[in-house]
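Quick one - first record:
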Amino acid sequence: MLKKYKDDQEFYSLVGIKPQTFYKMLEILKIAESKQKYYGGRKNKIVIEGRLLMTL
């Protein structure tokens, strides 16, 4: 789970994108991951939010 930030500006300065954009990207990734997991595979050790933050 993501840490709570004071405001959108703090999130933007740390991550580099607006929180709204981040959550939209997260929705798209969750849909893609569910389609991929339909065919099987191993569980990821890092949650999807963490993987997205590392990518950014």
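second record:
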Amino acid sequence: MKQVDNIPAMSEAALVEVLSSSLYPGAEKNSVVMVLAYCQAAHLDPMLKPVHIVPIWNSKTKKMQDTVMPGIGLYRIQAARTGQYAGISDPEYGPEVTAKLSGVDVTYPEWCRVTVKRQMSNGLVAEFTANERWLENYATASRDSAAPNAMWKRRSFAQLAKCAEAQALRKAFPEVGSAPTADEMEGKAFEEAARDISPQPQIQSEADALPAYSDDLLAENIVKWQPLIDSSRTSPEHLIATISSKYTLNPEQIERITNLKALDGDAV
């Protein structure tokens, strides 16, 4: 460790104790050691907390695993160090959407757009824009729920803005790396793409199967399913497969569900 002025450098064990009690309270000592190793390898000051310890669900080991990940602040620092960082736009948001996810009422922006500027070697300023959708980024409260966790529910706009900014910084400054930030991965899992967290239609018991899919009630369900399909959280084919796994749908009912189409919204 370096010595600053006349203050002797801390031992690694002492620094781990300081980090554990201040910047990473409650974290396992081994995880804090990983933070220290990360910072040393990247020549970062660990006291600035450039990285975070994020518990990530590992689908192979079936348990949570502490993972050291860069924070959005580190991306900003690295972009500034290039001497070519020319600013960032205020986040732009799409329309607010209100939906019920696993019984929880949630209001969130449909998308967020952020632009990062970089001054190129020829003097021109290039703009790099990233557009991120809330439904593709938010973290769920648990493995078996489609409801957002507390942070994504309380700060739905700010959390999405961080994800959009991180993506824009990666596009503008590819040398900062390609790893996702802690804000993007909090509450998620390795091999997340393989997990389907789409809200499922409420299926009644076997005894109520036929009444549940009479013409009148089917029409009512279609009204409820349309927003799910419009937001790309599910599809007519997925609905049919889910329902058909338990109940028998006649051809007319299958056709009516198949005819549900997502709205052609403006490209963002």
